[in-house]
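Researcher: Structure for this, please.
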Amino acid sequence: MNIHEYQAKALLRSYGVPVSDGRIVLRAEEAKSAAGEMDGPLWVVKAQIHAGGRGKGTFKEASAGEKGGVRLTKSVAEAAEQASLMLGRTLVTHQTGPAGKVVNRIYIEDGSDIETELYLALLVDRATSRVSFVVSTEGGMDIEEVAASTPEKILSFTVDPATGIQGFHGRRVAFALGLEGKQVKQCVDLINKLYKLFIERDAEMIEINPLIVTDTGDLKCLDAKMGFDSNALYRQPDILALRDETEEDPKELAASKFDLNYIALDGEIGCMVNGAGLAMATMDIIKLYGAEPANFLDVGGGATKEKVTEAFKIITSDPQVKGILVNIFGGIMRCDVIAEGVIAAVKEMGLEVPLVVRLEGTNVELGKQIINESGLNVIAADNLSDAAQKIVKAVKG
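Model: Predicted structure, token format:
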């Protein structure tokens, strides 16, 4: 689960991490009073969406102005005006895709005098099962671009969970970033606090870009992104309360409410599979035969008829889906349950695209019988390869 910048900065502030003073604005008429609560002389107006590249983004609506989603202003009135221009408009960045995201929140914060921009992130390193630090002197840039063009400017190391964070970790970061004097001590303190936040709050990512050195020689987190382990939210109720459902894909949101593992993709063939490994193999074989999957969807081993029905509804609600492949290998999951769920969903939603069903395993004959006697226009398949070829042929002609 991701949160907004202003929420991330509130968390940082609660752990004693240096950030700028700021105010959140939800309605245009609140912008002037919010900006007036800060001293200036510079006010930064930031669109709040779950995507990077806001400063270089563009708005679809001409009335939002030509500037990006991060704007520097020099008066309370100008800050309020820019906030009003952005609220309710659609911001398009390299991470949102061409559809963009509607800006429902604006964050106005004090401007900062910047001497140096740096990069700092904490991530979960899946290879070592440890928390990893990634730091670079190239702050303010996309870290992917830095990694591709100048990888030598990136330092990465992991923290042994047996010892936890130590002073030398902070000093290692400080030296890699070229910090000196009081900045080294500040860096050690910052690293300790960020690691504590990461562990205590079940974070998956904390990205500070840029981490700046101010004109007074102090460190400050100028921007912040955070993501959290969705499986741990049951023990983080205050983090869960920060969830902004308007920023999430409606299909993924609906799937989460039925405990379905769903991720939207860009292809044209919807997939409903049981088991993550089989789902990945299904997506791969669809690509092998010349098409693209529209989603990853694992209904799980203990799915009910109601879950299967909801999964089918989610797939058919995607306008880019031109065909559907149901691929079930019944172990714990029974093929007849899948068949009943598919039929119930089709009767409720209708079926306007080709549907290929491959069933194998527990109660497979009963599942096939249920589908065959349903009167649905379903294409039967004998194995995974056969199923993939048939759905690709039905979609591609």
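Researcher: Any notable elements?
Model: The domain at 250-396 is CATH 3.40.50.261 (Rossmann fold). The chain has three domains: 21-110, 114-240, 250-396.
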